[in-house]
Amino acid sequence: MRPGRLHNPLPMTGSRPARRGRRNPSVTDEAIDKIQALIISGSWGPGDRLPKEKELAAQLGLSRNSLREAVRALSQLRVLEVRQGDGTYVTSLEPDRRVGPGAV
User: Fold this and answer.
1) Quick one: which of 84, 88, 86 has its CA closest to 70?
2) Topology, domain 25-97
3) What does the pLDDT look like over 23-72, one tens digit per residue?
4) Using an 8 Å Cβ cutoff, are 7 and 69 in contact?
5) Hey, which of 3, 21, 54, 62 would disulfide with 66, CB 3.0 to 4.6 Å?
């Protein structure tokens, strides 16, 4: 780097800087979308217990860590309720509690 020139920390793609505002959905975002799709489709309704973590991760094609993060996010939105030692349950299908493209 030449003296007097600032270092640009943004990676370059071709001759233009990479876009910072747009990012691909994370694995956790995809996990949230998959769980919400199952709820919206009617596969699970309010009060239904989700399959065990290991089974659900395999069913959705996710790692258990990604699944845990998604469940944590959806429980903070009160879409899911995690009952320690009992399981994870669907609590609400209200549109204002959904996230992502299908949300109102």
Assistant:
1) 88
2) Arc Repressor Mutant, subunit A (1.10.10)
3) 567 889 999 999 999 999 999 999 999 999 999 999 999 999 999 999 99
4) no
5) 62
